[in-house]
Amino acid sequence: MEDRSHKVLLALVMLFLFAVIVLQYVCPGTECQLLRLRAFSPSAAAADPYRAEDETPARFVPRFNFSAGDLLRRVDFNIKGDDLIVFLHIQKTGG
C-alpha cells in the first residue's frame, strides 16, 4: 500500500512540474494574461480594445473604420481565367 501512495505522490509532483514548465513556455513574462480572471469574463471580450485599463486616452487611434461587411466580403476569383495573384516583397520591412 505504501508503494502505491508513493507512486501517486510522484505522479502528482511530476504533473505539477509539467504544468509549471508549460506555463513558462506559454507565458514567459511577469505579466501573464492567462492568469488574470478578468481575461475569461464575458465583459472583457466586449470591452473596447483601444481603451487602456486605467482609462487613459488611447495612444493608437484607428484611421480606417471598416464595417464588418467590408471585412467579410467574398470576391470571386478565377485562377484559370484572367485573374492574377501578385506577391509583392518589399525588402527590409520586417515581413
From TrEMBL:
Annotated coiled-coil positions are none
Lineage top rank: taxon: Eukaryota
Catalytic function, reaction form: alpha-D-glucosaminyl-[heparan sulfate](n) + 3'-phosphoadenylyl sulfate = 6-sulfo-alpha-D-glucosaminyl-[heparan sulfate](n) + adenosine 3',5'-bisphosphate + H(+)
EC class name: transferase
Q: Which GO terms describe its molecular function?
A: heparan sulfate 6-sulfotransferase activity
Q: Where in the cell is it found?
A: Membrane
The signal sequence is 1-24
Keywords, in A-Z order: Glycoprotein, Membrane, Signal, Signal-anchor, Transferase, Transmembrane, Transmembrane helix
For this record, the Gene Ontology CC terms, alphabetical, are:
membrane
Q: How does it sit in the membrane?
A: Single-pass membrane protein; Single-pass type II membrane protein
EC no. given is 2.8.2.-
Q: Which family does it belong to?
A: Belongs to the sulfotransferase 6 family.
Question: What does this protein's UniProt record list under function?
Answer: 6-O-sulfation enzyme which catalyzes the transfer of sulfate from 3'-phosphoadenosine 5'-phosphosulfate (PAPS) to position 6 of the N-sulfoglucosamine residue (GlcNS) of heparan sulfate.
Name recorded for this polypeptide? Heparan-sulfate 6-O-sulfotransferase
